[in-house]
Amino acid sequence: MKKLLICVVLSLFAIGFLSAQEMPKITIVNNTGYDIYEIFASPEEDDDWGDDWLPANRILRSGQSFEITLLYPLSQYNVYDIMLIDEDDDAYLKWGVRITANARIVFTFDDIDWDY
């Protein structure tokens, strides 16, 4: 019984610790000169971009910014690949971005990936 109680207490502590870790917020800044229709951000280790972070009814105009709350704490993943897709289906890519809490990631026309 004593061992069970210790296991329960340790489990609750671990759950509390994990939930106490805040998910990082980052701000994507669109300085590409084009409207952005999709934003993707995934941990560098992932082979899949995952879901579009930009709501379907939202366009990120040039000069605007958009805040994203990432899915994992920085202690788990802190390097991300980030991609924006513009109105012409051109991709703007940043590979291996080291994320910090409240980071501002600025995309410019120089980030266009001509091979996409």
Describe this structure in words.
The chain has 116 residues and is an alpha+beta fold. It has one domain (23-111): Sandwich (Immunoglobulin-like). Helices cover 16% and strands 36% of the residues. The protein is built from one helix and six strands, in the order H-E-E-E-E-E-E. It has one helix at 2-20; strands at residues 25-31, 36-43, 65-69, 79-86, 91-98, 103-108. The strands form two sheets. The protein has a three-stranded mixed sheet with strand order 3-1-6, with no helix packed on it. It has a three-stranded antiparallel sheet with strand order 2-4-5, with no helix packed on it. A hairpin with a 4-residue loop joins strand 4 and strand 5 (91-98). It is globular and about 35 Å long. 16% of the residues are buried. The model is unreliable at 16-20 (pLDDT under 50).
Order of helices and strands: HEEEEEE
Count of helix runs: 1
Number of strands: 6
The CATH H-level homologous superfamily = Domain of unknown function DUF5300
Structural class: alpha+beta
User: Beta fraction of the residues?
Assistant: 35-45%
The number of distinct structural domains comes to 1
- What integer value in Å does the Rg equal? 18 Å
Strand order of the largest sheet: 3-1-6
| CATH level-two architecture | Sandwich
Query: pLDDT below 50 for ≥5 consecutive residues: which ranges?
Result: 16-20
- Look at the structure and give the CATH class: Mainly Beta
Largest sheet: 3 strands, mixed
User: How much helical structure, as a percent, in the residues?
Assistant: 10-25%
Shape summary: globular
- What name does CATH use for the topology? Immunoglobulin-like
Distance between the termini: 60 Å
Average pLDDT, all residues? 87
